[in-house]
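Hi C.,

You asked whether I'd gotten around to modeling the 767-residue construct. I have! Everything is below, sequence then structure, no commentary in between.
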Amino acid sequence: MVRQRALHKPLSLLLLTPLCLLHRGASGQPHWTRRAPDEEATAIQGVRGGSVELACGSGPAPLVVFWSFTPLGSLIPRPVAVTNGAESKVEAGASALGAVSLWNSSLVLQELREGARGHFLCQALHAAGGQLHTTYSYLTLAVLVPVSKPQVRLSDPSPVEGTSVVATCAVREGTEPVTFAWRHQAPRGPEEDLVEVTGQLLQLDPVNRTHLGWYACSARNAVNRLSSDGNFLDVVYGPDNPVIMVEPLGLTEEGFWAGEGEEVTLSCGAASNPPCHYVWLRDHTQVQVGPAYTIASASRAHTGLYTCLAHNSRLDTHSQTTVRLTIYYPPEGQPSCSALPTLGAVTLVCAWQGGLPAARLRWEGPRGTGPAALSNVTWSHGTTQLPNGGIFTCAGEHPALALPALCRITLWEPLRSPTCWTTATVGDQFIMLSCEWPGGEPRAMLSWLDGQQQTLGTTSPSLAIHLLHTQDDLAGREFTCRGSHPLRVPDPHCRLLLEAPQVAVAKPQVSVLEGGEAWLGCALLGGTPPVQLLWLGPQRRQVEAGPSGFMLHPEGAQLHLSIRDTDPARHRGAYQCVARNALGNSSRSVLLEVLRYPAPPNVTISRLTYGRHRREVQLQWAVRGPGNLTGFLVQRRASVPSPGAGAWETAASDIEPESRGRRLGGLDPGVRYAFRVLALNHHTAGHPSEVKIPADPPFSAYPAVLGAAGTGVVVATVASLLVFQYAARHPGTVPCIEPPPAIPGVEPVQEATDAPVNVTITVTATP
């Protein structure tokens, strides 16, 4: 009963029970009773804002449980809560620990606060064996605080390269120990961990451009781990010495090169923060502002020094780099290949001069690759090693050319053999010996030899010329031209024998009739150097083709002279055919006789009458006597000669010798004409015929005209009879015609009987 009553005492009385266990120290304040040496406090950890349950020992449920709390650094316990199993009481001041509650004998702390960090004592009153005894549980609570989100703080966010920078990973709170980790990410690179740095501070001393970028840190303790946002460290530096690149890229010992005509771009870049500004100079003259300078079409004038100036406006610093740009250009044209004969060998020469740099030349032949050199390369071969028709190629390479330039040469011997001839200079002062052997590669070498096989002059390729003075006794002397070629064995030659000219004529005497064509023939029998053939006329003047009838007909070694329309007065005489060269002259004569034709026969006019309306005449003639006829000529003029009558004019010509008549028209009816006829014999005219005047033709009419005339006569007769009858009946009405009176002393005029009378008769005919 007593026990039960005790269990049901008010809670306020129970709270006083544990106090008997406390002693007062000298200060009069309560304190913990000392624990037995074997008693140890149980360590428990909780997280701020979290919850923790503190158990009060183990075993049967106690009658009364009393919880007290002693903060760290303090010796005074503070009541927290008490329970008797049925009721519980939490001290009001326990809210500093969090949300406090009891669960059976356990103390539950929710929304744990940092003030709960300290020592907890659980005193439990147990009844066992009819007696009361107390148990104690000692617990030490550690309240852990999570780390807050760290921040990276830079002592200088834009330091100059070479200075010192400190980065701090700042954490507002967090239970120690706190560990730190750092990360760095360059602007154009991956993120990397700075494993060598584990402290809260990151010392960059000295700072350089590799440190530029984003920095982030992370803080970690027993509760959590948080990372900061990145903070950008902008390191200011530069500009470094610029780096110049050239496109298309061509490197030389002195700098860069580009081909003539190409588009060339020079690019400049210098490490700098902030980015720098660029200026281009060519031979100390500004040509461009900006990082790139483009030459649209490079020429030789663009060769020179190019300087890139870099300027950092933030630091007001400068740097520069200078390079040399050389514009390459190939030699003009193509390589030239030639072959030079030497003693027992042939030297192939390939040349291609000019260009920058000099072109590299290389020989290639049927048996492989030959030597190489710049601008000029030679390759010698023994004559026994050279096939006829062998092809050799020279390739010229130049940096400015995409493909090599080629020239080829084919070795071949010239055809046939040397050809010799001679010519004389103007005035025949010198005789020129000429020898030619064209073709071949290399060209054949020619030289002149005299009769004693002594060399005259120098040896020359393909054509050899030697001059001889004509004052020397050269007639009958022989000269030899000898040719040599590495592919021809033995050496061929040709010979010349100098001699004065000789001529012959076809006929020493030629006869031709007047007006005919004469042919005089002349032939050259020999002569070296070349001979000039010409004809001299009877007056010893050179005959030339022209209107005088002379024609020259050269045919090889012959020169014929033809004379047309020969005339005894002009063409008759002795002609000379003359042959002339530098060594002498030769001539032969031809006598030309021009014979006249016999005189043509006489001609008489047998009939000459007018035609209708007197506008034409019909002429007939007859030939009397022998003679050779070639044609006739008819002439006319006015019938009565007078000062104004004019000379005879040709009425008809080119009349065939067989003709004996001609109708001539185109006459004026008001003019009386006289005609005559001449016989022609080639170019000789006979005596003119008698002069005659055309006569009127005898009258003739058509039958209709005759009928009309008869009718007219009948009518006229009837009319006359009627007139006479009327006159007889009426004599006074018809007038009489009396003769004119005679004048004394004057004889009567006699009427000219030959005066022309114009009579007009009108006849009307009725059919």
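If it helps when you're writing up: The two ends are 210 Å apart (CA to CA).

Thanks,
B.
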